[in-house]
Amino acid sequence: MTDETGPWLVVGLGNPGREYAGNRHNVGFMVAELLAVRLGGRFGRYKRVVADVAEGRLGFGGPKLVLLKPQTYMNLSGGPVAALAQFHKIPVDRVIAVHDELDIPYGQLRVKQGGGEGGHNGLRSMSKSLGTKDYVRVRFGIGRPPGRQDPADFVLSDFGTAERKELEFLVDRAADMVESVVSKGVEPTQNAYHGA
């Protein structure tokens, strides 16, 4: 039985370092940073879990959100996630991963609970460390690379000029979706956002 008043862990997936800041693979960091601003929190280094963490409440007296940006590089993201979930006693159904998604066209956002990792190293690491795939995902569509570009190179490149025109709006919408999952649940969020 989940404690209805307990905290939520929101994991923005990305890679640390300035050279990665604008990459498609770092969109999870972008959403987490916007949520920190909305909550009036500020990211600080959590040395015990090799991560940047911010905390705040959703609305006045609302649920506590623990925002996490792992600083371990994508393929080792799971360690900090599992450690922080354990420290705050957060059950897996209150863990939300925000990540880039190759299998969804750019401009589309999707929410789901559980499922596969689609070759995403951050999700794979999280599933392994948490011992389950049943956490919530806010999936930020980046689309497939053009031509024969290697997907690994594509996710580690910056958003294109045309994409950047929409990026701020989409990051804002992804943050709205995280808040909706916390306050209303996965299914109502899917109903509200997937048709839009």
From TrEMBL:
Domain of life: Bacteria
Compartment(s) of residence: Cytoplasm
Marked site (Discriminates between blocked and unblocked aminoacyl-tRNA) residue numbers: N15
Matching PROSITE patterns: PEPT_TRNA_HYDROL_1, PEPT_TRNA_HYDROL_2
Pfam families, per database record: Pept_tRNA_hydro (PF01195)
Marked site positions, Stabilizes the basic form of H active site to accept a proton: D100
Enzyme Commission number(s) from the entry: 3.1.1.29
Catalytic activity: an N-acyl-L-alpha-aminoacyl-tRNA + H2O = an N-acyl-L-amino acid + a tRNA + H(+)
Presence of the UniProt keyword Acetylation in the record: no
Enzyme class: hydrolase
Annotated tRNA binding sites: Y20, Y73, N75, N121
Keywords: Cytoplasm, Hydrolase, RNA-binding, tRNA-binding
Active site: H25 (proton acceptor)
Entry GO MF terms: peptidyl-tRNA hydrolase activity
Function of the molecule: Hydrolyzes ribosome-free peptidyl-tRNAs (with 1 or more amino acids incorporated), which drop off the ribosome during protein synthesis, or as a result of ribosome stalling.
Family statement: Belongs to the PTH family.
HAMAP family: Pept_tRNA_hydro_bact
Subunit-level organization: Monomer.
Name this polypeptide is given: Peptidyl-tRNA hydrolase
Annotated source species: Micromonospora antibiotica
Record lineage: Bacteria, Bacillati, Actinomycetota, Actinomycetes, Micromonosporales
Gene name for this UniProt entry: pth
